Amino acid sequence: MKLEELQVYQLSMEIAEKVWDIVVEWDNFLRDTIGKQLVRAADSVAANLSEGFGRYHYKESKHFYYYSRGSLYETKTWLTKAYNRKLLSKKEYQEFYKEINNIGVKLNNYIHTIGKK
Questions:
Q1: Alpha-carbon distance 106 to 9, whole Å?
Q2: Computed over its alpha carbons, how large is the radius of gyration of the chain?
Q3: Residue ranges of the domains in the chain?
């Protein structure tokens, strides 16, 4: 199986692009403060999946998948801050929240299967 075939990876890539499309429209102060943190966290979800996928041993892989999960929850926090600060509409926030929860379930399930025969 290729990395690009993993649904959790595809969804992680999609949400990061959606985050980017919103943050790039913010003014300099907002991009420089909350925007950079949000983009980095969202990008890190897929990046850590990639790094873990490229590791030789499953224990090494799992290590990076746990980092990916941490980045996912960090993304959730930054999205909540953005919503609380009126940078996201309620609809945008609810859509992101739903997507993050979906990715979280898929990521947890994927982590659970690593190393099992």
A1: 10
A2: 15
A3: 3-113
pLDDT at 105: 98
Nearest CA among 34, 4, 10, 6 for reference residue 99: 10
Q: Using N-to-C axis directions, what is the helix angle for 7-23 and 36-53, rounded to 10°?
A: 160
Instruction: Give the C-alpha distances (Å, rounded to integers) separating 15 from 21, 58, 67, 102.
Output: 10, 26, 17, 11
Is the pTM above the cut of 0.90?
Answer: yes
Q: Is the pLDDT of residue 25 over 70?
A: yes
Helix (H, G, I), strand (E, B) or coil at 57: coil
Superfamily of domain 3-113: 23S rRNA-intervening sequence (1.20.1440.60)
Q: Is pLDDT above 70 for 117? A: no
Q: Tell me if 45 sits within 8 A of 14, measured CB to CB.
A: no
Encoded tokens for 101: 């929860």
- The answer, yes or no, to whether residue 92 has pLDDT greater than 70, is yes
